[in-house]
From TrEMBL:
Residues 10-78 form the HTH merR-type domain. The keyword Coiled coil applies. This is Putative transcriptional regulators. InterPro entries: DNA-bd_dom_put_sf, MerR-type_HTH_dom, MerR_fam. One of its GO terms (molecular function) is DNA-binding transcription factor activity. SMART domains: HTH_MERR. Keywords: Coiled coil, DNA-binding. Residues 75-102 form a coiled coil. The keyword DNA-binding applies. Pfam families: MerR_1 (PF13411). SUPFAM superfamilies: Putative DNA-binding domain.
């Protein structure tokens, strides 16, 4: 069975328009200009995700505040880019931590308000502690 998440195309245009409190023609216009691009079925019908609906609500909010459609498009583009970069950073941090932890001689230290302490492998630092990996050369 397929896993459902915020990016699963679920809603026909009428349902998505109702959820976003917009007219279906507005959704068609936003699709045409590339603000919100829904998935398509085999028959070319639009299918909107929960993420699309959230974007439509954000567009409505920004529009009500006087932001132009071009400004909204740029804001959404930058938000998407930021999300992608944040996910990439998390992946790279995890890969780096895994690599460093598996090297011979790696030691883990936690630095925080109480100073620096060495952590045993598998021990977690407190939430407000920075973790630094160190390897003797």
């Amino acid at each position: 069975m397929e896993q459902l998440d915020e990016n699963t195309p679920l809603f026909a245009i009428g349902v998505a328009a109702e959820l976003a409190q917009m007219h279906p023609q507005t959704l068609r216009d936003y699709d045409r200009i590339g603000l919100v691009t829904p998935g398509r079925t085999g028959g070319k019908s639009r299918r909107y995700t929960m993420r699309n609906v959230a974007q439509l609500r954000e567009i409505a909010r920004l529009s009500a505040e006087g932001v132009s459609l071009e400004g909204i498009r740029r804001i959404l583009e930058l938000e998407n880019q930021n999300s992608e970069l944040a996910a990439r950073v998390r992946d790279l941090e995890q890969a780096l931590a895994n690599e460093l932890m598996n090297r011979p001689g790696a030691r883990v230290f936690a630095a925080g308000d109480q100073g620096v302490e060495s952590l045993a492998r598998g021990k977690r630092p407190s939430k407000h502690t920075s973790v630094v990996l160190w390897r003797a050369r």
